[in-house]
Amino acid sequence: MTSRLGFGALHLTDGGWGPPVDRDAAKAVLRTAVDLGVHMIDTADAYGVGANEELIAEALHPYPAGLTVATKAGQCRPGRGEWVPLGRPEYLRQQAELSLRRLRVERLDLFYLHRVDPAVPLADQVGALADLRAEGKVDRIGLSEVDVETIEAARRVAPISAVQNKYSVDDRAYEEVVDHCTAESIAFVPWRPIPRGDARVAKVAAELGAPEAAVALAWLLARSPAIQPIPGTTSLEHLRENMSADAITLTADQVAVLDQS
Ligand SMILES: NC(=O)c1ccc[n+]([C@@H]2O[C@H](COP(=O)([O-])OP(=O)(O)OC[C@H]3O[C@@H](n4cnc5c(N)ncnc54)[C@H](OP(=O)(O)O)[C@@H]3O)[C@@H](O)[C@H]2O)c1
After folding, report:
1. Average predicted confidence (pLDDT) for the chain
2. Which one of 57, 167, 183, 209 is most buried, counting C-beta atoms within 10 A?
3. Ligand 1 mutation target, pool 76, 110, 194, 220, most atoms within 8 A of CB
4. Where are the alpha helices (DSSP H) in 135-259?
5. Which atom of ligand 1 is least distant from the CA of 193?
6. Annotated catalytic sites, by residue?
7. 12 Cα–ligand 1 center, Å
8. What residues contact residue 55 under an 8 Å CB cut-off, 6+ apart?
9. Is any atom of ligand 1 closer than 6 Å to the C-beta of 213?
């Protein structure tokens, strides 16, 4: 695995709810992502309500050495478009067992608490993941959509290897978390990493003759060595554009343009 980029698989299953629209095309995207060097595939029990993990196993199992398959639990899906935090320990354990089965592995490489459930003590939610780790069913533990205080509270229960928050060149609400993860050697995995129609990105992309998505991803890679973006696409062409970010080195002037508010 040669890239700091990962691949987000959410959109490969219809609307995050149903099976893939085109199963063969979705498998081709996953296999090409691995061929192009992604080091991580990002999924969740809730994506396609299990169908996304099944698709990944069908496309990629047995997984190549060095590839991380990251999954999550902690949001249930009462209906299409509905995502409801559910962090009861027995539910998190059940979902881990189902992810192990669907991904056809004996240990989950990276297992995120998808959302902190405000109705359940944080220590119980992270404690459930820590118990699974102690049993050898989980290798690394991650959190999603969390602030620094929550990260530190969770770290008093278990080691946290990754934080997955929404972050991009045009969405900087989590600057403090990026800095904290960088200082603490925690992987920061930005979701929704590609902005839509950002004038600053368009300007730098035109200057470089590069796709806008690749420039936005290159900015993330330059922002911190802790950052491991997981752009998702259903298109082989977009996948290749996104992977071309690895080859882009932004100048200080270009970073300054992208950093303008
Ligand atoms: N932790 C969380 O709560 C959370 C929430 C949401 C998502 N995620 C994870 O993060 C991953 C990425 O997030 P995301 O899917 O919301 O955002 P994203 O990957 O930034 O955006 C996906 C969208 O961008 C388009 N796109 C991708 N590459 C493009 C390119 N080169 N040019 C133009 N358009 C392009 C895709 O359309 P095409 O298919 O047409 O390319 C798709 O509509 C997801 O797959 C999922 O694994 C996590």
Report:
1. 97
2. 167
3. 194
4. 148-155, 175-183, 199-208, 212-223, 236-243, 252-259
5. 20
6. 47
7. 10
8. 9, 12, 13, 19, 20, 23, 26, 27, 30, 48
9. yes
For 86-100, what is the mean pLDDT?
98
Asked whether 232 lines ligand 1 (CB < 6 A), one says yes
Residues 8-58: pLDDT tens digits? 999 999 878 989 989 999 999 999 999 999 999 999 999 999 999 999 999
In CATH terms, 7-196+220-232 corresponds, of 3.30.10.20, 2.102.10.10, 3.20.20.100, 3.40.50.1000, to 3.20.20.100
Which value, in Å, is the radius of gyration of the alpha carbons in the chain? 18
Tell me how far apart the alpha carbons of residues 21 and 194 are, in angstroms, rounded to a whole number: 23
Per-residue model confidence (pLDDT) at position 45: 98
> pLDDT tens, 124-151?
999 999 999 999 999 999 999 999 999 9
